[in-house]
Amino acid sequence: MRGQPSLCEVLTPLNLAEALALLAAHPEARPLAGGTDLMVPFAAGRLPDRLFLNLWDLEELRGIVVTDGEVTLGALTLFREIAAHPLLQREFPNLVRSAMVTGALAIQSRGSLGGNIANGSPAADTPPSLLAYGAELELTSLRGSRWVPYADFHTGYKRSLLAPDELITRIRLSRMGEGGFHYFRKVGTRQAQAIAKVSLAAWARVADGRIQDLRLALGSVAPMPIRAKGTERILQGQAIRNLPLDAALAALQADISPIDDLRSSAAFRRKVAGNLLVDMLRGLAPT
Amino acid sequence: MTTQKILLKLTVNGEARQALVHPMSRLLDVIREDFCLTGTKEGCGEGECGACSVILDGSLVNACLVPAIQAQGSTMRTVEGLAGVDLSPLQQAFLHHGGAQCGFCTPGMLVAGTYLLETDAVQDEDRAREGLSGNLCRCTGYVKIVDALLAAREGRP
Lengths: 287, 157
Fold this sequence. Notes:
Helices cover about 30% and strands about 25% of the residues of chain A. Chain A is of the alpha+beta class. Chain B has 2 domains: about 5-80, Roll (Ubiquitin-like (UB roll)); about 90-155, [2Fe-2S]-binding domain (DNA polymerase, domain 1). Helices cover about 30% and strands about 15% of the residues of chain B. By secondary structure, chain B is an alpha+beta fold. A 5-stranded mixed sheet of chain B has the order 2-1-5-3-4, sandwiched between helices.
């Protein structure tokens, strides 16, 4: 069955206040950003929604604001804008690289960071980078705004903290300066236009030869993008010349819960996740 | 019960056009069925293949993934708008290098290639390949297409 545009209605607010009022009145409306995710199941007749809230014209959700301590991205910030941003390139290279491997140019011209998060795909490319950078999300409704750690946002497969009357409005990153260790790698079937079989993003700070801070996150190995907190605990504080590699690999296998699906197998994903951890640690502690 | 249509107004290849469409209709279907511009092709319908590439308000997009309502008031260029009296330099380079075989990907390749040339994103072969990575071709093996793009950039046949 194909999608049925003739059965669908679209609400198009002109500003955020109007959008929140419409969503409060119609909590069943599906927020629609650039359409790069939603239009695929919609056109195939696999999306049950009949009422959409078109966010595309909301200027309040656009733009990247840099202050001394933070970078705040509007939820409608496009992958192309992230890829082209000089400060993000310097200080948040994982986010830039993950934006650049999200589809190709035409997807990056319409796809948005907030949409990528809200869609909730465990295979999305930017979430592991956001987790590795300790991102926070602003969720807004007529009732007000709240900031939540992104690490708490996804609560299960395609489930999240977002209430039916809330929109993701901003994404905030704390600036950690230059000189930290950044790692992002996505493994797909081919280099371009592939959906990840496994992806891993990490941020670390090494001081006095030891891992002082480490955030490690993976995509496509669990019902949602996840932090590998058990693995982080094993590695935290360890001397980079003598890392407990076996214990870290064992902890990683306990942190992840991959499945067999049409893109890959659970066994392959477990193997590759371990290989990516080894590759990351080699970069952290070059011999 | 069907829902209300909207009067969609856009500038298409320099001409003011309008159509009465459902807001969630795909821009691709509006282009092909309402504007009868059938140069824009449907390949996968999932944003993977680039056969439906058009330039919308200066951005390269997959027309299969744009709901019509989000194109309201936009300026759009399709493959039909690339040639003037003569073929564009990129179109001539495709002819010269044999960049088209079955031809199904060609409109999308030409639109994406035009966008890359106009945004100066074809500095070398790697950049050309990266830029075209959202456009799939199952015939040429890409070499002739990339050759044509680089030739057009350098202003040679």
